[in-house]
Amino acid sequence: MRGVVNDVIIVGGGPVGLLLAGELRLAGADPLVLESADGSARGNRSFGLRGINGRTSQSLRLRGLTDAFSKVQAEMPGLARQLRGSRSRGHFAGLPLVEDEVSPDAAVGFILRQHVLERVLAEWATGLGVRIRTGHEVVDIAQENDAVRAVLADGRSERAAYLVGCDGGRSVVRKRAGIAFPGTEPTMTGRVARAELADPGAVKSSMHGPGGMVHVGMVPGEIATMEFDGGPEDRDAPMTAEEMRASVGRVSGIDVTVTSLDGGIRFSDNTRQAATYRRGRVLLAGDAAHVHSPIGGQGLNLGLQDAMNLGWKLGLVVRGAAPESLLDTYTAERHPVGERVLRNTRAQVALMRPGPQVAALREVLEETLGIPAAKRHFIAMGNGADIDYAPGSVPPLVGRFAPLPLLSEDGRALLVSGAGSTFLARPDGYVAWAAPDGETAGLDEALALVTGGVYKVKRVFKM
């Protein structure tokens, strides 16, 4: 690879790109993150809240990041809140999902703004030695025999052995790599604005209002609406107080006065998924690989789990410790998970439509959620606990996330023994091998897979 300076170029410095960069660094690779926005523009990602679900929280805990997020929570009273002790597990199409009881060991979730999440992940990644360059817009890529070249807006270029597009739903990387992005057109327009009403109490927040969804003050200082009028005509046009006033009126049936508006964003249920997450030396993660409605808050978690899955694999391949075919397991494992989330969010949007027929369907589903097994199923879908990379495996633990709280700040695989059994957790926390104590059939092969034959593994004993 003559002239290749970087192991991996990551296009996009949002949460997914930052987590992937840290994972690659732990795996022994030297990634370079190229982010188009400069430091001041990144604050535009501050609208709304982002939820970290139970499974992603466990992944972050695996890397020792829980304390950092707890500190952020303490700095944001009344806005971001830690969910320990809460029985709430979000909602499905606006129908609350509440557990009957919560284990003291239940996974901790977080709610925070995206720019705060990025700050924590950037500090972690740079602490590991990751190089992050802001104000570097990638406008084209070119695959060569032994490298990938990223062309910047100023005409300069960077080369690497591999390149990962974490550059969002309008991904330049995906388009230039020629990866198809099939899906469905938007059916609704959502708006979030930093705004104030003359009479905030005039409108009652509702997920199922006469014309759609409206929330006033659920996030302090913000108003949100969702109406089923097709997608936004111009998603990037500046939002006005009149636009927000009219939207609140259509959704709630109440005429309001917007006294101030300091910016806003639009979203839709445009739902698409890349046909493959890899083409040659180019890979996709996060919104570059899949987009959908933000209802239910699954998109960020889906992307962060992409990063956890890809990081250790790409790190091994870059180091020459694993064959390139290991990268094929990234699409094989993550594409079905993405398909499931897209189906889930499509269903939620359909159930939030106004009208008596859909309202009746919601009532039937609400009754169904009163059945404990059904409620557990919906909660597992929402928090990622139903992910199984090896369905039908014997023992069934293989392919699922490790059943115990684990810590691997250095990204090593973990060989865990105790309670009559032993299992091997991959660097991303998923089980690669399991057997009763004393049985070792298949262990050498599993160790070679997750460590590249170096057997860089930590032994842990749990009672």
Automatic annotation (TrEMBL):
Gene3D superfamilies reported for this sequence: 3.40.30.120, FAD/NAD(P)-binding domain
Needed cofactors: FAD
InterPro entries named among the record's database cross-references: FAD-bd (IPR002938), FAD/NAD-bd_sf (IPR036188), RIFMO-like (IPR050641)
FAD-binding domain boundaries: 7-345
Protein name, per record: 2-polyprenyl-6-methoxyphenol hydroxylase-like FAD-dependent oxidoreductase
Keywords: FAD, Flavoprotein
PANTHER family, per the entry: BINDING MONOOXYGENASE, PUTATIVE (JCVI)-RELATED (PTHR43004:SF19), TRK SYSTEM POTASSIUM UPTAKE PROTEIN (PTHR43004)
Phylogenetic lineage: Bacteria, Bacillati, Actinomycetota, Actinomycetes, Pseudonocardiales
Pfam family, one: FAD_binding_3
